[in-house]
Amino acid sequence: MVGEMPSNIGSNTTKFLMVVAILAVAISLISFISNYASYKSSGFVSVDTAKANLTIESKIDINFTVDGVNWGTGYVNVTDGLTNATLNTEGDMGGTGWNHVTQGLVLESLSNQNVTINLTSSNDALGFIDTDSDHGSTYMWKITEDEVGSCGPNGVPGSALNSSLLNYKSVADATSYPDGVVVCNNFYWGVSKNQLLIDIQVNVSADALPGARGSIITATAASL
Fold first, then answer.
1. 71 vs 213: CA distance, rounded Å
2. How is the chain split into domains, by residue range?
3. Considering the chain, what percentage of its residues have pLDDT values greater than 70?
């Protein structure tokens, strides 16, 4: 029949339209996914940082946990043939009447770092015991660790102690404040390794004048 459209043309047109529709759907889906990802990146997922800060303050603090030695009242009994009496904080007690003392001074570090320790004395034997040097009175100290490892880098026992003070020595070199004498050049601060022992010894001449006596010992800590 003249003017009738072939059937295969209609079929091809239908297929073409279906392909176009599928492509449109695919393009729309890709666009949606892309827009969603962009939206999610800029809105729902965000990265930032925060900080936590603190500063530990340097602390130097020392304390005499045992801060006094008191032999009380006594005398040198010359009727027993004595010319002097030796008293110390390790239990030695010559003469008559004085207290029996077995504990020296104890210096503790409450610092959070190692420090050096200087000691000074307000007087020497002439100012403390007897004003006449011919009488032979003496005033001495010695410094050791009260807790092992207290005086040394990283708690190494005794390595930073003043070796000249491991035995009794006159305090005469330490009467100039604030210099005094360095007794420990690396005083540790760790728990159970932070105490120095300062033992005191005096020799009282029988010729020393009666009266009360006193001496002040000052400890100074400084950073390394």
1. 10
2. 7-45, 62-223
3. 82
SS3 213: coil
Q: Nearest Cα to 104, choosing from 172, 41, 195?
A: 195
Say how far apart CA 150 and CA 186 lie, in whole Å.
8
Q: 10 Å Cβ neighbour count for 37?
A: 10
Beta strands in 14-96 (DSSP E): 62-66, 84-88
Q: Model pTM? A: 0.78
Residue found by looking up tokens 């032979």 in the block: 136
Cα–Cα dist 166/143, whole Å: 6
pLDDT in tens, 133-167: 889 999 999 999 999 999 998 768 899 999 999 99
Phi and psi at 61, nearest 5°, equal -155, 125
Measured torsion, CA atoms of residues 54, 58, 62, 65, in degrees rounded to the nearest 10: 10
Chain segment 84-118, per-residue pLDDT in tens: 999 999 999 999 999 999 999 999 999 999 999 99
Contact of 194 with 109, CB cutoff 8 Å: yes
User: Tokens in use for 114?
Assistant: 């190692």
